[in-house]
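Revision sheet: structure tokens.
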Amino acid sequence: MAVFSAVCAYFLWGTFGLYFKALDEVSPLEILAHRIIWSVIFLALIITFMKKWAEIFAILCTPKKLGLYALSALLVSTNWGIYIYSVVSGQALEGSMGYFILPLVAVMFGAIFFGERFSKPQALAILLALSGVAYQVWSFGKLPWIALTLAFSFGLYGVLRKKAPADSINGLFLETLLMSPIALCFITYKAFEGDLFFLGAPIDMIGLLLLAGPITAIPLIMFAYGARKLRYSTVGLLQYINPTCQFFIAIFIFKEPFEITNLITFAFIWAGLLLYTQNTVMQTRQKKLENS
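Predicted:
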């Protein structure tokens, strides 16, 4: 059940692009604002059901902890916004690249912020991924900023959440709660300007926007359940479901171009991930033998 729950979470995250593509008539910023607002409401219902308000109020009354969540809220909102933009603007393939790079960015941040030592294979894996990015820059003459912003924003988000006291559900509620005043101000401004899509939208599009809360929270709940019961190495292997789904959706459903230069870039990144994964599995087995 735990594996099924985690697989479903990663699969849902990987297919988010289909949802955002269905909303491509809406501006990315309005989609982001709706995602924040409806997530707050949906998560508030879950927290009420789980009777977790005491934990929420305890953090809200602690400025230091609240400041930590304000920073993580800014990072996750940036990540969400850039990913929505990548799909709506026809650059979902580069978005998938960002999430393929993410595990290697996490290794770098582990060394920088937590003093974790990475092995030579892990260092080589990072170098291979950087080579892929460098080749992309050389081939197209531009930095793959969408991929790098997605990877680094979520990597830094992971660093902050590792220091944060709340669980994943409470944490996401606090983050969306802190961003909701900005989202509400944006929605109100767009409404007064007569440029808010939501007000004149067909009923099916309104329904899709209202679903932004549940589709944000449900995969997180499933992941939290699975991650608690699975080995870290298993969770690490399953995480590739997300960018793999994004990759295939971008090519076969969105019909984004995939040329030889794209293949070479991804080949460098996939080689790095293969090396990183192999090394991680070997380290896990070695620790298991040492502890047995």
